[in-house]
UniProtKB/TrEMBL annotation:
Signal peptide: none annotated. GO terms for biological process: methylation. The keyword Cytoplasm does not apply. It holds the Pfam family Methyltransf_25. CDD domains: AdoMet_MTases. Keywords: Methyltransferase, Transferase, Ubiquinone. The keyword Transferase applies. This is Ubiquinone/menaquinone biosynthesis C-methylase UbiE. One of its GO terms (molecular function) is methyltransferase activity. Residues 48-140 form the Methyltransferase domain.
Length: 234
């Protein structure tokens, strides 16, 4: 996995949310959570595994809506941030945070209703084996996102500290087929890439987001989108 040492540093975990989801990044956080809820709802009563849960943005959100959820991540400091969030939200009795490797999930086959991984596949060295492992422990649904090869994301990809793997639609279809998953639905968004929004104030980002959304709803919107959300079924 790319950038493991960087990702597991204490100071990275402490500043992760503020650097990525403040300013214009608030729009990213809101849209990602919307995409997760679109795919998983109704949430209440479902058993969920979130792989690469980071600081628990989605983990806590889903627990607040009634899911019994396990958040797994390789970074101890990230997991501690998640535990703090869960306790502050009063949902720590619905959440378990575990340190573990996405390549060898410590669960039996068909253990969870839903398995999800957000902000994960752009760092995956062996995406086919990772997706197969997500599929193995899910009995119903696998939800994940990817950054798109033929989009504005490619223009600044080289500048990211960890780099990112970009995917074409053909590659996604091949991954799903290899993992014996069937695509139920997909959403495509952000003609302007995430990095752009993180660099500008929220008020300015809102104006750009309106334009971005208008282009995204046009006939060419999906082909220009920099990020895709995939809802696959077992």
């Amino acid at each position: 996995m790319k950038g493991q040492e960087w990702y597991q540093a204490d100071d990275v975990a402490e500043e992760y949310d503020s650097k990525r989801f403040s300013r214009g990044g608030r729009l990213i956080d809101s849209r990602e959570k919307e995409a997760v809820l679109d795919a998983i709802s109704p949430v209440e009563g479902k058993s969920v595994l979130e792989v690469a849960c980071g600081t628990g943005r989605f983990t806590v959100m889903l627990a607040e809506r009634g899911a019994d959820i396990v958040g797994l991540d390789i970074s101890g400091p990230m997991l501690q941030q998640g535990r703090t969030k869960a306790q502050a939200a009063g949902v720590d009795d619905h959440v378990e945070f575990m340190r573990g490797d996405a390549a060898r999930l410590p669960f039996p086959d068909d253990h969870f209703d839903v398995v999800m991984a957000m902000r994960f596949f752009h760092l995956a060295d062996t995406p086919a084996s990772f997706l197969a492992e997500l599929r193995r422990v899910s009995k119903e649904q696998v939800v994940f996102d990817t950054f798109n090869r033929f989009s504005t994301r490619s223009l600044y990809n080289w500048a990211l500290p960890m780099g990112s793997r970009l995917y074409s639609r053909w590659e996604i279809d091949r991954l799903l087929d290899g993992a014996n998953l069937e695509l139920a639905s997909d959403e495509h968004d952000f003609v302007l890439p995430y990095g752009f929004y993180r660099k500008i104030p929220n008020s300015l980002a809102t104006a750009f987001r309106s334009l971005d959304t208008a282009v995204g709803k046009s006939p060419v919107g999906d082909s220009l989108a920099s990020v895709s959300y995939w809802d696959a079924r077992v």
